[in-house]
Amino acid sequence: MNIPDQPIAMSHQIHTYTELQQQIHDDLRIQHPDWVNSDGSSPTCDSYESRLMELLGISTRRGSNESAVATHRALEQGATR
User: Fold this and answer.
1) What is the pTM of this model?
2) Burial letters for 63-81: b for 16+ Cβ neighbours within 10 Å, e otherwise?
3) Could you tell me which of 45, 56, 48 has the C-alpha nearest to residue 17?
4) CA–CA separation, 30 vs 67, rounded Å?
5) What are the 10-residue block averages of pLDDT along the chain, 81 residues in total?
6) pLDDT for position 72
7) Cα–Cα distance measured from residue 63 to residue 2, given in angstroms and rounded to the nearest whole number
8) From the CA atom positions of the chain, what is the Rg in Å?
9) Which residues contact residue 20 at a Cβ distance below 8 angstroms, ignoring those fewer than 6 apart?
10) Contacts of 3 (CB under 8 A, 6+ apart)
11) Which of 68, 42, 66 has the alpha carbon at shortest distance from 76?
């Protein structure tokens, strides 16, 4: 994991799905500046965001604890690749 030298400021409480998406978008780029191209694009961050949203969508459609466990495992596997 890439941990920045400076502490990360705590953000405001998230109330909506859109706010969650924006927070994830911002945090990935802050935590992994090496993934951001000089033009501001970041295919790696975009891929992580897309996969997470896909997993969250699957989890909310199923609405069970089992799907939450599956989502957690998938996220862990993605983080170790």
Assistant:
1) 0.55
2) eeeebeeebeebeeeeeee
3) 56
4) 29
5) 58 78 90 95 93 78 56 60 54
6) 57
7) 32
8) 14
9) 14
10) 31
11) 68
Tokens encoding 39: 């033009």
Q: Are 78 and 51 in contact (CB under 8 A)?
A: yes
Q: Which residue has the tokens 């989890």?
A: 59
Output the 3-class SS for the chain: CCCCCCCCCCCCCCCCHHHHHHHHHHHHHHHCHHHCCCCCCCHHHHHHHHHHHHHHHHHHHHCCHHHHHHHHHHHHHHHCC
